[in-house]
Structure formats: structure tokens, C-alpha cells
# Entry
Amino acid sequence: MLIGAHVSPAGGLAKAIERGEQRGCRAIQIFNQSPRQWKPTVYRDEDVSAFAEAIAAGPIDAVMIHAVYLLNCASDDPDIRAKSLTSLTHSLRVGRQIGACGVVLHPGSAKTGDVQAAITRAGATIREALAESDGCPLHLENTAGTGGTLGRSVEELAQLLEAGGEGERLGLCLDSCHLFASGYDIRTSAGTDELVNEISRVVGLERLGSLHLNDSQTPLGSNRDRHANIGEGEIGEDGCAAFLSAPAFGDLPCVLETPGENRSGAGREEVALAVTLRERGIAERTRNC
# Structure
């Protein structure tokens, strides 16, 4: 498993690699544009070349892009959907440029409207973005289930995959905090294995593309997306160890999106803790075999 953290590309794409190395990462995740603006960042050839050189010279083995939170591919507002399509397509094209293993997308929200209609709208936008780009996979992230957010269950993720065309480039990103908040008790090996079995049955394990590791400030089934630092929330260290050690997750990139110290994001110590917890979870599974 390639464990790492979300880092900033401020100052140039290659700076993201430097920040990942400082944190002891083997995987990093970045926003490819300002998360507060629709305007895309256009990278020069020199930026991409410097990024490729930094990757080749260092320990980072996987890069993920997170689509900005402004996107709502399921919106009933045609203007918002059009902006979301443009931004998502750009992210996928940048992902191909820099060799990203995937763009992670929150599928969207129905707000207070019809969920099935929203899934259809999201699927159409996703299909178009994939058609207008090539090479880079798209990972739909599960949600905590707040309000009308789409992707709160494996069944709903399956519907989104179907609506998005179920092509080879379309996969899933599983967020531990969101799983827990939406009612999946992943704090034990048995609970995580139950989730994996459901994914295998409903969408297929080949759809698993990436992971987000976050503890949860709120209880099981709260439907509230509140990230906590690893071991400081309701999932806890043992729960994170159980999640990380699931055999089906073994080769995936896993990115921490935790608040970190002074809300500066996951640091070196927390990344190292995640690595230790995975090893602890594997040892526990081995003892129980």
C-alpha cells in the first residue's frame, strides 16, 4: 500500500513532490487548481517536466488529483453542470499530463431534489468528461450522506458507475471517515471484510482505485463529514489498522486528508503512524488466521 498525504502544489507542481517527501509519503494528492475558484490552472511544459524529474528522483510512487469541491455534476442548474464538466475535464487532462493514477471526484448532490434524476445528471456529466479526455482514471468517492450527497452506499455508488458508463477508466475512492459516517462499521477486520464482500458482489473489486484514510469526529451513522486526525476520533487506531490491513486494499494508494497540527494537514508523524497501523493490522489478521 502506498500511504501518503494531501499536499499543496503552491510554487509549482514539483513543490508538491518536495512536500510529500518531507512527510515521508509514497503517495500524494493535490488540487490541480484553486479549490475556491472555477478558473483552471494551466501548467507549462516546464512545470510538467520538472514534476516528472522530481517524481523520477524520489520515493513518491503515486499521484492523485482531487477535483475541487465547487463541482456538482448532479446539479439541476445547467450552468453549474457546464462549469463542473469543464473543470472535471481539465483535471483529467492534467492527470494524463503528470501521470496521475486517478482524479478523485465527489459525484455531486441532489440537494433536496430527486436522487435518481440527480444520478442520471451526474452520470451524463461524467460520461462527457471521460469522452473529452483520455488516459487518466476517474475515482468516484463515497460520501458521508449529508443532505442530498450522492454515493452514500455501495448500491448508490453502483448506480453512479452505471450512469457514468462503467468504462475501464471509472473506479472508486473509499474514504474511511465517510464510510463510518454513512453506517459502515469498519473498526474491525470482520466489519471491513463485510464491506469488501459487498463491494465485490455489487460492483467488483476491480473498481477499487484509491483510498482516503481519515478518522471521524462523529459517531457511526451520523451522516456528518467531520475528519479527525488518525487515532483521535470515533474510528480510533485499532479501527484504522483494521481498515488499512484489508487484503483487497493492499496495492492501492492511500492518502490522509486529516486536519493535522494547526490544521496544516497530515505531517510526517501521522503518515508514519498510518504505516505502523497497517503493519499492526496485518499482524493481527495473521494471528487470527
